[in-house]
Design goal:
Chain lengths: 338, 186
């Protein structure tokens, strides 16, 4: 009798899990590790994701209503800013770094090239208040949102309370960004047994595992650690990366390893967008490494690739482009009324 | 001592994890874990809590600032809301103690000084624990002697602190000295 009772509890728990998962805006891809983001403090809800999505595309976030998150994080560029080496914001200001692509954020523990931000919820505060990005403040934004009839009903639908607050705005933006999961590239399909690599891609995968995988680790294609990848310092920027946050000499010239997913959509490359194409990037790793005390241990020995190997490696890297993600309508601009 | 005319225009700080002891054993913990004191908001000057009638205490303990776990826990409503002017936007972390004003000795624009003391990661950890021995009463008064704090630093050189750094640690280290339990002149 006792055993039977326990069994029925187990069945009930499993059923409820399946039901919740079906309508959930976030599903962990089977071949991904567990996410780092703690969803218990911000459980995803379709109405909140919707509010976050509308906020993400709304220039109301900037002081003069000209710049939205999407201005520098365009969906068609995997939420990066193609063609601009350095990001540009309010009043045509030019920043110091290349706008990074936004996807698979649930697996990242720190944000920005130097890890200045320690939690996804707090990330939006930085661009909102940066003088060269949106030039506003969270306080000013809250005032504007509370003056808007449209947002009153959006906040009510999402949070069952029409008043906008800092926490609600930040958590809504997090919720939308957490749904930006890229896991349907050719690579993923091969891993899941739905596709096969060509011989050239196979060769490239082999080279990738030999030379790149320690930092750009599968399946996220980044360790999200901070590394110095041997770039010469740009004298016009004097950017020492992680050092500017920790003031620890061991962090000098280290930047967060970016994911290689969607790389065809996210050019130019590196923290300052100095390389226009993948050929330049590979040339840096084979011929351009500058030795310094903080150089990544994985780059101390030279990487040698002949021209054919470079072509093969690029063929594999192109398998990391996730077209379904790039053109997914549910990530794109949506009018607040629709 | 600065031979100075000093005006304080803004004073805000977090009081966290307030507890009471009797004979060095913990007898009480305040429910509200983080309280934002704001000089300009009189209602923040009081922390009210109904104690069980049998609780006797002779010492209280609390922190000035926000602990490191809370610092990495994302957006939190209420006193920890990032719209309270106590959160850094360009580098994550709470400002534990904020003091602003002007002083004739300040070599800054409009003689202003701005002390935004924060930093939760070693070696710039500015969270400070304070213990005060006191007499149990209905109202326990705590004084914050800002004059004592200002007199320990040279405002002509220490006027702009807005990031986790060495100067912030020096000021944070002084904070435990300026919190005093009031002694009634009876």
């Amino acid at each position: 009798m006792r055993n039977k009772f326990m069994f029925s509890i187990v069945v009930f728990a499993m059923l409820s899990f399946i039901i919740i998962n079906k309508n959930h805006p976030f599903t962990k891809p089977a071949h991904f590790p567990p996410p780092s983001y703690d969803f218990r403090n911000n459980p995803l809800d379709t109405a909140i994701v919707n509010l976050g999505r509308i906020l993400f595309y709304d220039p109301i976030l900037s002081a003069d209503n000209t710049i939205s998150c999407a201005s520098c994080h365009s969906p068609y560029n995997a939420f990066a800013h193609t063609d601009h080496d350095l990001s540009h914001g309010i009043s045509d200001s030019i920043g110091n770094r290349n706008a990074p692509a936004l996807f698979n954020l649930a697996w990242q523990k720190s944000f920005m090239w130097d890890g200045a931000i320690n939690h996804l919820d707090m990330q939006a505060l930085a661009p909102i208040s940066h003088a060269k990005e949106m030039g506003s403040s969270i306080e000013e934004l809250i005032k504007k949102l509370n003056d808007s009839k449209t947002y009153k009903s959006l906040f009510y639908n999402a949070w069952k309370d029409s008043i906008a607050t800092g926490v609600k705005v930040l958590k809504s933006l997090s919720q939308f960004q957490l749904t930006l999961v890229s896991s349907n590239a050719k690579y993923d399909k091969v891993i899941n047994g739905q596709d096969t690599f060509t011989q050239q891609e196979k060769n490239g995968y082999h080279l990738f595992k030999k030379h790149c995988n320690i930092c750009h680790s599968e399946p996220l294609f980044s360790s999200y650690a901070f590394e110095n990848n041997g770039l010469p310092v740009d004298p016009t920027l004097q950017d020492f990366g992680r050092w500017s946050i920790t003031h620890n000499a061991q962090d000098s010239l280290k930047f967060k390893v970016p994911s290689l997913r969607n790389l065809s959509y996210t050019y130019p490359y590196m923290h300052d967008g100095r390389f226009k194409n993948l050929k330049e990037v590979l040339h840096h790793y084979t011929n351009g490494i500058v030795k310094s005390p903080t150089l990544s241990a994985n780059l101390v020995n030279p990487i040698i690739l002949n021209p054919n190997e470079k072509v093969d490696l690029i063929a594999f890297l192109l398998c990391l482009n996730d077209k379904e993600f790039i053109f997914d309508k549910k990530h794109q601009y949506k009018k607040s009324g629709s | 001592m600065n031979n100075d005319t000093i005006t304080v225009s803004n004073l805000k700080f977090y009081i966290s994890n307030l507890v009471a002891y009797h004979a060095d054993s913990l007898v009480f913990e305040l429910d509200k874990k983080h309280h934002l004191f704001d000089l300009s908001q009189v209602n923040t000057h009081h922390l009210t809590e109904k104690l069980p009638s049998n609780v006797r205490f002779d010492k209280i303990g609390f922190y000035i600032g926000v602990d490191s776990l809370t610092n990495v826990s994302g957006a939190i409503a209420g006193d920890l809301d990032p719209t309270n002017g106590m959160y850094w936007t360009w580098q994550s972390g709470y400002i534990n103690f904020k003091l602003e004003g002007s002083a004739t000795s300040c070599l800054s624009r409009l003689h202003r000084f701005q002390w935004h003391i924060g930093g939760y990661q070693s070696p710039v950890n500015t969270l400070k624990q304070i213990h005060l021995k006191l007499e149990q009463k209905k109202d326990v008064d705590i004084q914050v002697q800002i004059g004592d704090l200002l007199s320990k630093f040279d405002l002509s050189t220490t006027f702009q602190i807005m990031s986790p750094n060495r100067q912030a640690v020096e000021i944070a280290n002084t904070l435990p000295e300026i919190f005093k339990a009031s002694v009634d002149a009876e």
